[in-house]
Structures are given as C-alpha cells and as structure tokens.
Amino acid sequence: MKLNLDRQSTTPLVQQLSDGLCQWISAQRLRPGTRLPSIRHLVREQGVSQSCAIEAYDRLVSQGWLEARHGVGFFVAERRGQASFAEEPAWGEGAEGRWRLFSDEQENLLRLGCGWLPANWRQSEEIALAIRQVSRGADQDLFGYGPPLGLTALRQQVRKRLALLGIHVQPEQILATQGASQALDLLVRTLLKPGDTVLVERPGYYNLYNLLRLHGVRMLEVPRTPQGPDLDVLATMLREHRPRYLFVNSLYQNPTGTSLSPRSAQRLLELAGEHDLRIIEDDIYADFQEGPATRLATLDSQQRVIYLASFSKTLSSSLRVGYLVADAGLVARLAEVKMVTGIGASRFAEQVVAQLLGSGVYRKSVQRLRVRLAEHMASALRLLEANGWEVFAEPYGGMFVWTRYPGANFSHLQALAQDAGVLLSPGSAFDPQGRDSDWLRINVAYARDVRAQAFFQAVRQASSWRPPAS
Asked: Looking at CB atoms within 10 Å, which of 8, 111, 123, 428 has the fewest?
C-alpha cells in the first residue's frame, strides 16, 4: 500500500492518512469483509505514530468505511447504498436527489462534479487570522446588524476591484449580499412576478432554474455554444415572446466552462437594445480570470446589465458574501427587499472579507488559485483525451469541463463511479426540465485524485460501450 503523506502540508497527518486509506480502498475495489493491514503494519509501512494510525482507523469506523472486530482487526464495512447505487440516481427528480452533493452522508465519496474547490486549496490560516482580527475589533462587528447596502468598507473594496475590470460605478450602485444566490433571489423577488417570461441558458445553473420555478416564472431555453448563448435562437425568442430578462454567465459558464466571445457579447448587447431586454450577468467565477476578458457589464453603455459576483468560490463557501451592481434606484429597492426578507446580512462575514481584501491577502490567494487551476485544467483535458472522452469545448480557465463518453449513458457511468468511490453530476441536473443527458460536469480540481483516475480507466476498459465503427 503506497500512500502519499506530505509532512510539510497544513493538513493534519491523521487526516491525510484516513483520506489516503479511503482512496486506496476505492482504487483497489476492496469488497466488504476484506481485512486491512494491522495497526503495527500500518505504523511501520507509512512511518506514522501508533496513535496516528489508531485515530485514522477510528475515523474510518465512525464514517462507515470500516468495522472493528475486537481482537481480530479492521475490515471493510458494507456501506449503506453500495449495492443499490445503480438504481438510485446521484441527482434524481426529487429534492433529496438534487442535493446529494451537499450531503454529509456522501462525505466519503469524491465529488468529481461539485461546484467548489477542495478545502485544502483554501487559505485557512489567512482566513483564521482575519477572523481573529475582526473578533478583537469593535463589538458592533461581532454583535450588530449589517447596514442595508452592506458594510461601507466592503463596498469600497468591491468598487476598487470592479474598476480593475473596467466596471466604473458609484458606491450607491453596489449592494452586498449573502453570496450570489441571495443576489439572484432578490432580483427575482423584486423584478418578476408569476407568469413572467425570462431567458435562461441550457445547460445552465440548476439552482437558478429551481428559483424561477419556485416563483412561477416561465423559462425559455437558449442553447449555450462555445462562444456564448446561441444568438440566432435568442433573436427568434426575443421577436416571438418578448421576454423581460436574460440570465447569463459570461466567464467560465456553469457547467460548460465556456466564455463569451467579444463578437457574441457585442451582438448580445445590440439585441438587448433592440428588444428592450435587461441582462443579469452572473460573474461568480470572475476572480479565476487574470488579464483581459469579455464582460457585458464592461461593454454596457445603456445600463441594461445587472452584474453580480461572489467571494464564496474563491474564499470559503461558509463566508456567504457576494455583491450586486445596478442603477442606484434598483439597488435601493433591492436593499429594502433584502431587509424585509433577511434583516440584512452577516456583518461579521462582510468584515472578514473586507479585511482580506484590504490586506492584499485575497489578491495573492486568487493568483495562486489561478495557477493551480490552470495546471489542473491542462492535466484534466489530457486525461480525458487519453481515455477517449469527448469535450464540449476546451475552457481556457475556471473549474469546469463539460464532457461525455461516446456510447455510454449515465446509468453505466454511475455504476462504475460508485465502484471507484466517485459521485457524479449528471447532465440532467443542468437542464431546465431535468431531461436525460449523456454529458457530465467535471471539476478539474478533483481529476487527479486516485478515485477519479480509477473511474476514467474503468470507463475506458468497458470497451463494449464504444459505438460500432461506421
């Protein structure tokens, strides 16, 4: 058994050992009842202390990976749902199926298609330092409500960052939110009513679909191309249905990873002007891009674009801090709805993010993330090509690749994924109507994991899935 333990890592050795054992069990496809090496053997082979080995095994017992037999040793346990996974979709029609990626019950599976970065990629020490600094500050930041527009210090930092992107706004045009999700919710509550019609991308962000459906809003689907929304389809829908709003990702679209081309962006704004359309630009992956990029808010000269972004993807999913940019009148309306529905946001979280932005820690952190993601993107694309997968388009950054294996359907892939200890995100989750799809979203930050490697190799070995030669 070869486990890669890094003594220089900030991740505790016992956590590395337990994670490594999980990956090894999955990669070796060990069946329930298989005996694992003894504590003494593990200590000698991995060069760890006895207490470290004991705690690692104890963690795996508590997590359901192993069972301990007194006086005999540790054995691979029968995990709940293991035998019936093929009949239980990873992302089904019901709410329980849709949210399995977030469930603690799935913590032992590799979430190959999740929408966040690995925890050990985050700047935990820097975030902890900022939290301590805020905790030692004014009592108001610990116990007080946040102001309707958000903390002035945070909005000042956001304004500086927007100027670097070519988006020049006044402070009263910025509204701090609890992540991009609250920004979308406030917009839907304020601008739309049941029966209204909007345009959405297909494939696209599943939770936006759920939000619109919750509010009784009708969705018209615009296919996503490698250059952006299909402009011919969009023009036809604008003429025939006169929708009020379009929701779009410009950079590193979720789930395809594609970005809006300059030509498509210019034409999109022209169509918006011709048909009195407003565009809601979700730029949640903005900070994964370094250098020039095509954003609608940068090109907008008619104030047709409402822009939103978030720090949750780059800093922490638990620090729910995002922001929205629009004309001052709309921002004031949105702030009122924000106070009515949530009595503001977390003043403490906003103060922590402002501290990280103001100190320069955030800037250095995202620079490191960009380099790391670029390396993993190149590695993932090579891996997919080597194993016979088809890619929708090659992203030039971000986290996602939209891919499929010729001739395979999701139930086939899901069965092999379970054997490898992998949880997939099927294409149906990113369809407004939940229609079956043979496409998958892959998060490149997880593609080097041994469980992901085992999954891709297993798919390739299933040669009977390949379509017959023409």
From this structure: 8
